[in-house]
Amino acid sequence: MAASELFTKFARVWIPDTEDVWKSAELLKDYKPGDTVLHLKLEDDKETQHKIDPQTKELPPLRNPDILVGENDLTALSYLHEPAVLHNLKVRFMDSKLIYTYCGIVLVAINPYEQLPIYGEDIINAYSGQNMGDMDPHIFAVAEEAYKQMARDERNQSIIVSGESGAGKTVSAKYAMRYFATVSGSASEANVEEKVLASNPIMESIGNAKTTRNDNSSRFGKYIEIGFDKRYRIIGANMRTYLLEKSRVVFQAEDERNYHILYQLCASKHLPEFKALRLSHAQNFHYTNLGGSPVIEGIDDAKEMRNTRQACSLLGINESYQMGIFHILAAVLHLGNVAIKSNERDADNCFILPNTEHLIIFCDLLGVDYEQMAHWLCHRKIVTGSETYIKPMPKFQAINARDALAKHIYASVFNWIVHHVNKALHASIKQHSFIGVLDIYGFETFEINSFEQFCINYANEKLQQQFNMHVFKLEQEEYMKEQIPWTLIDFYDNQPCINLIEAKLGILDLLDEECKMPRGSDDTWAQKLYNTHLNKTTLFHKPRLSNKAFIIQHFADKVEYQCEGFLEKNKDTVYEEQITVLKASKLNLLAELFHDEKPATSPTEGRPSVARATVKSAKPRALQPSKEHKKSVGHQFRNSLHLLMETLNATTPHYVRCIKPNDDKFAFTFDPKRAVQQLRACGVLETIRISAAGFPSRWTYQEFFNRYRVLMKQKDVLSDKKLTCRNVLEKLIKDQDKYQFGKTKIFFRAGQVAYLEKLRADKLRAACIRIQKTIRSWLQRKKYLRMRKAAITIQRYVRGYQAKCYAQFLRRTRAAILIQKFQRMYSAWQKFLRIRSATIVIQSFVRGFRGRRQFKAILREQKAIILQKHVRSWMARSKYKRTHHAIIYLQCCYRRMMAKRELKKLKIEARSVEHYKTLNIGMENKIMQLQCKVNDQTKEMKSLLEKLSGLETTYTNETEKLRTEVDRLRANEESAKVSSNKITSLMEEIVILRRELKETQAQKKRLEEGADKYKAETDLMVSQLKEQNALLKNEKEELNRQIQEQAKEITESMEKRMEEETKQLEIDLNDERSRYQSLLNEFCRLEERYDNLKEEISLVNVTKPGHRRTDSTHSSNESEYTYNSLLSSDPGEPEDGTRRMEEFPEQKGALDMSLFLKLQKRVSELEQEKQALQEELDRKEDQALRSKAKEAEDQGVKARGAELEYESLKRQELESENKKLKNELNELHRALSEKASPAVTAPGSPAYKVLLDQLTASSEELEVRKEEVLILRSQLVSQKEAMAHKESKETMTEPMVLLEDICKMKDQGEITQAYMGLKETNRPSQDCHLLNEDGELWMAYQGLKQTNRLLESQLQGQKKNYENELEILHGEVQNLKEEINRQQQLLAQNLQLPPEARIEASLQHEITRLTNENLYYEELYADDPMKYQFYRISLYKRIIDLMEQLEKQDKTVRKLKKQLKVFAKKIGELEVGQTENVSPAQLADEPIRPVNIPRKEKDFQGMLEYKKDDELKLIKNLILELKPRGVAVNLIPGLPAYILFMCVRHADYINDDQRVRSLLTSTINGIKKILKKRSDDFEIVSFWLSNTCRFLHCLKQYSGEEAFMKHNTPRQNDHCLRNFDLAEYRQVISDLAIQIYQQLTKVMENVLQPMIVSGMLEHETIQGVSGLKPTGLRKRTSSVADEGTYTLDSIVRQLNNFHSTMCQHGMDPELIKQIVKQMFYIIGSVTLNNLLLRKDMCSWSKGMQIRYNVSQLEEWLRDKNLQTSGAKETLEPLIQAAQLLQVKKKTDEDAEAICSMCSALTTAQIVKVLNLYTPVNEFEERVTASFIRTIQVRLQNRKDSPQLLMDAKHIFPVTFPFNPSSLALESIQIPSSMNLGFLLRV
């Protein structure tokens, strides 16, 4: 294809850039051959020019279409080059947050520097069993592919994880091992997989360190072989290590750390066991402070130390060995602090100061001699042929020797730990295969590169060579498989570089040779390198400015190595004398490290042995002059590397390349420069180059046809898809070399898919334009027609409107004329009316003025007369009042005098009474207080009224007297005039009278003022009270309103709380049910495992002599359901139980459960016995109390009088108080019911509580007052009796008897005190004459007599009431006696009746008696409803007791009747047998006797009888060998369950508990056995689930419990079990049903699992909606319905099969709904999980497909009438995910809509779907990162699970609702085909 066809206007290309490496640009005009520049526009709209090299004429690389960007596999890109790879990785990493990407056979993993939730166990389960191309790229997919190929191809596998430091190699290897440990499990109980995982923290602590690029960098390489057995379960592991960086022990660069274990030791120095190590902070040690960064942010070294110690313990390194390791490592730290001083006189001599603290600690920790170690640290031994010299060392050499010793000790500890880890992981059984995980350093280049970097890059050269060869081999195999012609692909071969390093006279060979030289140095070695390789190979160069360095051109980059230190590190010299001192150590572990060590110069550093099973990489070599001494570090590393390559070449490799995105360790930050460097170094780009050199794009014929169907014409489409694709490609691509046709695929050169995508996009764009044109034309035509129609309509309406306006004008003109006429007439008429009205008004005003003037004159005259009348009346009235006032005053004075006298008498009387009260101990005070409290206010008002009335009467009398006196004086005035000598005296009297009159008037005035003042005060008080009353009313109303509101709020809150609590309780119930069922599932698993182990043991022991195998029908679970206590009718059968246990010794294993249930039942029986004994004890106590009361009554007949009087008083008071309280309570209830809502007055409401508190307080106060009144009254009665005894000498009762009666009263203390006071009163006093002063004693005695008379009359009334009640009680006793006699007569009559009529007659008589008694008591308690209510309650209790007794008797009668029938039948058989032997003559001679003819019973009672020996045959024919298909189709559903229950009924009928127990146990074991044998057969499992549930329902329906007998017929009630309670067996059978349900769920899941992803996601149910995109090398399952491919119809057919099978088996509808809900949950969860893990499925068109598929499932639910099963709700997360794929995803409104719509999805799932959303066509748009951040912000407050995937293994808790059967047991027929002829119908 010509470049001019691709480099056209708007085509996008990549151009180099200094910052971003590559930049995207767009062509502004077409490229033509011969152009020297390209005119481009960058993404920021800047225009630029790109120059074309005139020699190569190489054009910039083209950019892939947007729909190909972000692909899972880089080989799916049409243009395969560096910028395309870099851009694809960047888009996936930055925009989609995806860290894994395939590149052919390589998995590229980018370190996110952030914890991601993609490594949980749910993700592992999702990837388990999946093809590598079916899921998104993941380390688990690579691990699964390796595991699958190991099992499928029987070939060992290797996973090679490489990358530079900080790229995440160790973590990737760790996750791969965790995947194997989780998926495969362990073959033994030693938990090998846990040990494999536990080796990671140990190796990280001793082999990892912080570097400038990584906080947890592995400083050694390791290859872990995970061994598997024949069943591919982990059995062990083995670890090889490579090139530990020992130099890090004594040197670290800036901002780096030593190995983690040293800092962990320092952080744990405070622990008691570490005190002996004498450690301090890491900054105080030389070896741990060289980098100046002893702390890693976010890492707790002390916590990591605890994890390390736990891992050591798990791997078998005990505490003593651990402490030995810590002693050695602490000694290394102290050794680094040993200061070596140089001798000032001799520079070649050095020394250590005596008593150096750190050296002392070093020697103490290692148990070596201080003097020896101090000496040999500064001296060395030189051995010649005949002599030995001891030579001192200079300071620098001594320091190097000290550091070499530290490195050697640390390396020895490292190797020892590796050896013991391998020992702990060693497999105890033979290894069948293995998977190796290689975690090795990637290509490294630093500013200063030394021996370690040289070895690392050498290893990477070898691995890259192996990688290139493997990639080339795969490409070759693919081409040969498809039978297409291919040419040799030119790829980079790094064999010359490897030869430069390892060949003869190579770099390593020259290095070893220089190490052997006596005077060898780094400089001489460098010169040899220059002389040997410089200018002889293009891969070796010499730096311009250095003679001590060399440059090697590696496959990734040029690296400059500094020669300094190469020889020393290669030799790794350790002096023999220092090792000898260490061998003499007292520390056992150190002696073990160096005891067997040959004196070699260096350890093996992880050098593996040839045999994989006997690798001893931790065993160092000792120092002895031998051939081993000549093996340098480089030589050993080369050998171990060759061995590693042999191992890898013998396995199938899988490659993981880890990429470090940036050097700053920022989360999700991508640095293109660093990424490109690593892509070049790790071989990813080489893979791309090899792929691009051949045919990188590969399509199956079907995929190509579906994708590019739009480029074909109808005539091009043939029945043969291959021929169709050939014809189309020949037309589209003219160059035949650009593609090749294989057997199943079409192979394309690079860029051809992009060209086809361009053609497809152009075709779709043209189709869109054509559709738009047609649609727009149609829209415009529709618009024109609408406008034309509207214009015509407007014209019509306008013309009509104009005509209407003209007609309206004419009507208005005529109307105006009429209006003018009538208006003018109206105006004239109004004018006339106004003139007439004015005239009338003037006349009326004139006439009115005259009349008013005349009226005023008359009125003045009349008012003058009235004034005169009133004045004269007032004068007369005033004179009368003055006279009247004087008379009243005289009366007042007189009455005042009389009142003073009376007051004096009262005072005297009061004093005498007070004295009497004091003598009687305050008796009268209490009486007066009580009386005053009752009548105080009344008396006060009455006294005031009496005073006012008395004053008025006195005033009237005095006035009359004065008036008569005045009249008399007037009459005698004449005589007074005559008697002049009497004038003076009369005048004086008049003056006196006038003065008195004035005083009387003044007093009257004062009284009137007082009365007015009192009235005003009273009015003021009344007004204040009214105001307060109004305020109180308002407050009351407000309080009532608040109470109502609060009650309403409380009610609402309570309802909400109740709903929430109900929901929570339902959730808790489901959780508890789920936990119980999961535990049951675990129990079944362990039980099955136990059975398997037992079978294996039996198989192993089957060849032993004398061994007898147990019958297969008796499994180990049989004893589990053997409950000796469940069915035992007699609890006291220990001998029988012992005998049974002796008969079945194999049941001892399960005695715990039966013993537990037996003890449980025994405890319940003991509780019942305890309750019965307690009731008996209470009854005995009542009888004892009654007997005591009777004895006391017989003994105290004489003392009964006072007690009866007290009881009568008390009862009267109680009744009166009770009535008052009832009335008050009724009034309060009435008021509350009228003024408040029912919620306010309801019990528990605030108002109710307040009233209840007030009522309680009032009741307590009344009780106190009542007791006081009773005490006082009893004292008065006693005083009365004492006074009467004193006056009349009549003895009423003895004092001691009265004292005993009073002491029997309620409050003994107060009554005794009153009695003693009474005795003191009756005792004659010496001061009696003092009491009778002024007659006070007599007056008090009179008042006391009156009081006693009143009390006596009350006592007489109470006595009469008591006698009446006693008579009533005697009458009741008599009635009861008569009732008893009548009942005895009825009982005698009933005994004569037949048994059937006896119960009915008894019941009828009892009902009649209760009715009469009810009517009698209703009349008796008509006045007291409370007593009647209590009587009704007791009556109901009696009725319930009688009904229970009747039911028990009924059951007993039925049981006896059945036994009687059996006996009668047997007797009849015997009689028949006897009559057969009797002759007819004898029969005729026998006298005929009357016999009772019993009622004929039915022949069949719904029971089946079998012999005990036939039980095994029954289980075999009914369970083990029964074929469900024939039973389900031809017979009634649940027939085996009915047959089993009928057999149980017969065993219950004959009261054989052993048979019931044996039958039920055998049934359970038989069902378990058939389900274990046919565990994968849905029909079998469904059949026995249905029958187990029916058997369970039968046990409930015929159990005799009322809750299960509601829907039974009378005949079914007769069939209930009589002797045994099988409630506990029902629980066992329910557990069995749960186990079967879980097994059924697993069977359905296994059947549906392969169909779900293909049918719900991959298959295009709506053809043509979505086109497939290129898939790359990792081919996923095709979405086209080929043969063997599952579709949605396959799922629906399978669902129909499941449903029809369950319906045929007669499964309960509710149980079917639960099963369907579980099936739909499996479908929804698996589909959603795969959607979340597959980027290629997250598109708009796929969302439409999913919604259509879900609608088909919903339609299936409607067809089966299963809408209420809850299955649709389980699909809600999948529905919302599909909607999320289809909704608009741009604006904030869209974000809000998504948040409200996706309520069933978690935040992680929503974000994941948005990140995975991928456009399939160019017209779709990607989701921006800002929109995803908006969604995250809006959902950050949502509290949901952080888990990404749904739990596809979750099983909803199952319930078995009771479903009684209407089928009659006696109507069931057993077909002969079931071979159950030995069952007899009873």
Structure overview:
- The model is unreliable at 598-630, 1102-1156, 1196-1200, 1232-1243, 1286-1334, 1471-1498 and 1676-1683 (pLDDT under 50).
- The strands form eight sheets. Strands 5-6-20-7-16-10-11 form a seven-stranded mixed beta sheet, with helices on both faces.
- By secondary structure, it is of the alpha+beta class.
- The chain is extended, with a radius of gyration of 58 Å.
- The chain is built from 55 helices and 25 strands.
Short description:
The protein is α+β, with helices and mostly antiparallel strands and 1882 residues long. The chain contains 55 helices and 25 strands.
How many whole angstroms does the radius of gyration measure?
58 Å
The largest β sheet comes out as: 7 strands, mixed
The chain-level mean pLDDT equals 77
The separation of the N and C termini measures 94 Å
* SS content category: alpha+beta
Which strands sit side by side, in order, in the main sheet? 5-6-20-7-16-10-11
Q: Report the sheet-strand fraction.
A: 5-15%
Count of individual helical segments: 55
Furnish the topology, listing elements before pairings:
Layout: H1 3-6, E1 12-17, E2 21-27, E3 37-42, E4 47-51, H2 82-95, E5 100-103, E6 106-110, H3 121-127, H4 139-153, E7 157-162, H5 169-184, H6 192-207, E8 208-209, E9 217-218, E10 221-228, E11 234-242, H7 260-267, H8 301-314, H9 319-336, E12 341-342, E13 350-351, H10 357-366, H11 370-376, E14 379-383, E15 388-392, H12 395-425, E16 433-439, H13 451-482, H14 495-502, H15 507-516, H16 522-533, E17 540-541, E18 549-553, E19 558-562, H17 566-571, H18 576-583, H19 588-595, H20 633-649, E20 652-659, H21 672-682, H22 684-693, E21 697-700, H23 701-707, H24 721-732, E22 739-741, E23 745-748, H25 752-919, H26 923-971, H27 973-978, H28 983-1100, H29 1134-1143, H30 1151-1195, H31 1200-1235, H32 1238-1241, H33 1246-1288, H34 1295-1303, H35 1308-1322, H36 1328-1331, H37 1336-1392, H38 1395-1420, H39 1425-1475, H40 1480-1485, E24 1504-1505, H41 1511-1520, H42 1524-1530, H43 1535-1549, H44 1553-1573, H45 1578-1597, H46 1610-1614, H47 1623-1658, H48 1688-1704, H49 1709-1732, H50 1740-1759, H51 1767-1770, H52 1772-1782, H53 1788-1797, H54 1803-1812, H55 1825-1834, E25 1880-1881
Parallel strand pairs: 6-20, 7-16, 7-20
Antiparallel strand pairs: 1-2, 2-3, 3-4, 5-6, 8-9, 10-11, 10-16, 12-13, 14-15, 17-18, 18-19, 21-23, 22-23, 24-25
Helix pairs in contact: 4-5, 5-6, 6-7, 6-8, 6-12, 7-8, 9-10, 9-12, 13-14, 13-20, 13-22, 15-16, 23-24, 25-26, 25-28, 25-37, 28-47, 31-33, 31-37, 33-35, 33-37, 37-38, 38-39, 41-44, 43-44, 43-45, 44-47, 45-47, 47-48, 47-49, 49-52, 50-52, 53-55, 54-55
